[in-house]
Every structure is written in structure tokens, then in C-alpha cells.
Specification:
By secondary structure, the protein is mainly α. Helix content is 70%, strand content 0%. The termini are far apart.
């Protein structure tokens, strides 16, 4: 029986066609059509006059800028720099420094370095800061911001009026010794009244006063927890359990003490009253 011969690739069949289908040619035609369509679409988008990003406008001026334009650009650059530093400045000029340090030292005194988490400590500090500084912000808004927005005063007057409530707040929390230090370091003349004290000397004096007060409060908070650690360590040593960490045993007792005396209530109350001066 004769073997059946199959047509080889590239050999012509009796119908006069090759054995391989014309797939490469079809793919080539399809690629050319797709490329042609993409070129048409891209050229249309590039030449469309109304295609712009919403809310964004970018222009290039080929003319030589004048002095006024250069001054405006420099002012804008300075403004952006000040805005980037504004959060740190606002935090240092408020009660946030004292609150966050006291809460962090409380966490270390209890013996839980990660509880509460940093997000909780920062969030609670910000909430207490907003609560304590609310009267100051309200006074700034009434005396400076609203008159300026209503075009009753100019920008320089608004800045001066807005500084006064914040300066009064800082003066109440700053020691005279710290203010005198920065007046001497800055070679400033001896002021006759508190209005003559420049803000550049008052600001750092307020910060170091807040640091001193925060560490003083933190020391007072540490004492009861330190007593518990000493008692537990003495008991374990007398029992011969030298390999057992005292902090591991004292932690439940410190937590129990803190909860029984309603520690969060006392800490928050002490922090708020330390700024408001209440009893």
C-alpha cells in the first residue's frame, strides 16, 4: 500500500496555493491598521486646542521679566518656605510640647514603651492642645483675622494684633530667667515693659521653659511607679528569684495602680490646669 504523501511547507497544492496559510501577511496588515489608527488619535489629541488638565495652568513667558515680576516670585518662594516650617513653629508656640513630653514619660514610667502607640499619644496631645489653645485662637480670630478678611485693617496691623494673644499666652508660661537669658545672648536692651521684649527672644525662652516644666511633671509621675519597682525588686531578691526580671512582675501592679487611681483623668486634669491656672 502506497504511503500517503503530505504537501510540504511552501510546496504548492493542486489548487495552486501554498500549504501554509497566509497568517503572517494578515498579522502585518492588522498591525499597520492599528498603528495608523493610533497615529490619527495621537495627532488629534496633540492638536486639540481644549485639552488641558483641570485646575492646572502652565505658561511660559518668553519676554524678559521685569523687577516687579522678580519680586513677586521671590515673595512666593519665601511664602512657600515659611508655610513648610509653619507646623513646627505652631507646635512650639502652643501647649503641645509639654503635653506630648509628659504623656511619653508616663508611658515610660508605666513600663509599656509601645502602649499607647505613638499615634494615640500624638492624637491626644493635639486634642488637648486644641482645647487649651481654643480661647487664644478665638481671640486671634476676633481681633485680627476677621477684621482683615473684612478689609477693615491692613496686613501689617493684622499681624501685630494677631501676635498679641499668642505672646500673652507665652508670657504666662515663661520664666523671667529664661527671657533674660536670650535678651543677653541677643544683646538686646533691657525692656521697660513686656511689650518691648522682642518675639525672637520670647519664643526660645518659652520653649525651654516648657521643656523644664514638662520634665518636672514627668519626674513627679515617675515616683510612684519607681517605688513599686523597688518594692518588687526587693521582694524578688529576698526570695532568691534573681533570674526573674522585676519589671515583668511589677508591670501588672503598676497598671492596677494607674487604673485604680483613675490615672488618665488625673494626668489630663493636671496638664490642662497647668496652663489655665485653675484649682
Amino acid at each position: 500500500m502506497a504511503e500517503r504523501e503530505f504537501p510540504r511547507i511552501g510546496s504548492k497544492t493542486p489548487a495552486g496555493k501554498t500549504g501554509r496559510p497566509a497568517r503572517p501577511f494578515a498579522k502585518t496588515v492588522l498591525c499597520i491598521v492599528i498603528a495608523f489608527i493610533l497615529i490619527i488619535l495621537l495627532s488629534g489629541c496633540a492638536t486639540a486646542p481644549g485639552v488641558t488638565a483641570p485646575g492646572v495652568s502652565l505658561t511660559v513667558d518668553s519676554q524678559t521679566p521685569g523687577p516687579k515680576q522678580v519680586t513677586t516670585g521671590v515673595q512666593l518662594l519665601v511664602l512657600m518656605t515659611v508655610l513648610s516650617l509653619a507646623p513646627a513653629v505652631l507646635i512650639l508656640a502652643t501647649s503641645f510640647t509639654r503635653i506630648v513630653i509628659v504623656l511619653s514619660m508616663l508611658r515610660s514610667a508605666i513600663g509599656t514603651p509601645t502602649l499607647p502607640p505613638n499615634q494615640i499619644i500624638i492624637g491626644l496631645s493635639l486634642l488637648l492642645t486644641f482645647f487649651i489653645m481654643a480661647p487664644v485662637y478665638k481671640q486671634v480670630d476676633e481681633t485680627a483675622i476677621q477684621p482683615y478678611l473684612n478689609e477693615k485693617i491692613d496686613q501689617d496691623t493684622a499681624l501685630k494684633l494677631g501676635q498679641k494673644p499668642i505672646r500673652d499666652f507665652m508670657f504666662k508660661q515663661t520664666r523671667e530667667k529664661d527671657i533674660q537669658l536670650f535678651l543677653e545672648l541677643g544683646n538686646e536692651p533691657q525692656p521697660a515693659t513686656i511689650d518691648d521684649i522682642p518675639t525672637v527672644s520670647l519664643f526660645p525662652a518659652f520653649v525651654i521653659s516648657e521643656l523644664r516644666t514638662a520634665f518636672t511633671m514627668g519626674f513627679v509621675i515617675y515616683i510612684p511607679f519607681l517605688v513599686i519597682d523597688l518594692v518588687v525588686a526587693s521582694i524578688l531578691l529576698s526570695l532568691g528569684m534573681m533570674m526573674l526580671p522585676p519589671s515583668l512582675v511589677s508591670l501588672p501592679f503598676k497598671l492596677l495602680l494607674f487604673v485604680m487611681v483613675d490615672g488618665w483623668y488625673l494626668i489630663v486634669r493636671s496638664l490642662v490646669l497647668s496652663f489655665t491656672g485653675g484649682s
